[in-house]
């Protein structure tokens, strides 16, 4: 897990600047992807090539058959998936930290020039560093979610076309330098299939959480707009009510 420490520390900072559903997505990423991949997946796939048995001793045949069956190792594929899916979130974190830094400087300027008539005030963050997801931050946040969905779907489709979702026990290969059509047999195919399906289910849950979060943000934004429009509507109605009362008098 040491190699995941830096990425985990960065993603941990995003939690305080995310919605409730975003925090659930990060928890799924931490527990069911990074921790599982670091703790168990490498042990399951550590013998995928060394324990593969082929019915020939031709030098190099085993290597080319393995390359045919697995253009990229499952472990490396999932590592790339986690890194690519996390990248939009890290870009959003960079935007948030930039906004907090700018508004902290603005607060310092306002304290030094309290009587200067400064009109501009901090819009997104408070003095504790907590941000409100609105305006440009909301647009950046929703864009990062859309890219996360697209990347997750792309990796799911890519995994299907690369090697499917079931680990076949027998691999048929006829590449050179194999002298004939060779059959190779993988070790523990059932266990690896279970692991593949588990990672697929986690990826689908991640996509579902991202879709739900987009609807959540859209509904929250609509409700905020309605709450802002209601007081202005009441103010426009009040003068008419006052005029009607004066006319009756």
Structural description of this entry:
Helices cover 69% and strands 4% of the residues. Helix 1 (5-14) packs antiparallel against helix 2 (20-44), helix 1 packs across helix 4 (74-112) and helix 2 packs antiparallel against helix 4 (74-112). It is mainly α and 249 residues long. The protein has helices at 5-14, 20-44, 61-69, 74-112, 135-163, 189-248, and strands spanning 53-54, 170-173, 182-185. A hairpin with an 8-residue loop joins strand 2 and strand 3. The longest helix has 60 residues, at 189-248. A three-stranded antiparallel β-sheet has the order 1-3-2, with helices on one face. The chain starts with a helix and ends with a helix. The protein contains six helices and three strands; from the N terminus they run H-H-E-H-H-H-E-E-H. It is elongated and about 85 Å long.
Short description, anyone?
With 249 residues, the chain is mainly alpha-helical. The protein is 69% helix and 4% strand.
Topology:
Blueprint: H1 5-14, H2 20-44, E1 53-54, H3 61-69, H4 74-112, H5 135-163, E2 170-173, E3 182-185, H6 189-248
Antiparallel strand pairs: 1-3, 2-3
Taken in chain order, the helices and strands follow as HHEHHHEEH
Most strands sheet: 3 strands, antiparallel
Question: Order of strands across the biggest sheet?
Answer: 1-3-2
Share in β-strands: under 5%
Q: Strand pairing plus helix content: what structural class? A: mainly alpha
């Amino acid at each position: 897990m040491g190699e995941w420490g830096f990425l985990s520390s960065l993603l941990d900072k995003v939690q305080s600047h995310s919605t409730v559903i975003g925090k659930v997505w990060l928890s799924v990423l931490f527990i069911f992807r990074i921790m599982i991949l670091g703790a168990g997946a490498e042990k399951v796939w550590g013998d995928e090539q060394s324990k593969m048995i082929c019915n020939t001793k031709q030098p190099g045949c085993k290597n080319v058959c393995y390359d045919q069956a697995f253009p990229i190792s499952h472990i490396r594929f999932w590592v790339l998936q986690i890194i690519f899916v996390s990248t939009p979130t890290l870009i959003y974190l960079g935007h948030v930290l930039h906004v907090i830094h700018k508004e902290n400087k603005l607060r310092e300027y306002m304290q030094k020039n309290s009587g200067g008539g400064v009109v501009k005030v901090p819009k997104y963050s408070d003095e504790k560093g907590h941000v409100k997801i609105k305006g440009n931050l909301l647009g950046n946040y929703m864009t990062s979610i859309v890219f996360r969905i697209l990347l997750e779907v792309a990796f799911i489709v890519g995994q299907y076309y690369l090697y499917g979702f079931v680990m076949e026990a027998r691999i048929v290969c006829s590449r050179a330098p194999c002298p004939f059509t060779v059959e190779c047999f993988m070790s523990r195919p059932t266990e690896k299939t279970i692991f593949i399906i588990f990672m697929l289910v986690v990826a689908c849950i991640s996509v579902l959480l991202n879709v739900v979060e987009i609807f959540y943000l859209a509904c929250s934004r609509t409700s905020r707009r309605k709450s802002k429009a209601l007081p202005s509507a009441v103010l426009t109605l009040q003068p008419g009510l006052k005029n009607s009362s004066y006319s009756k008098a």
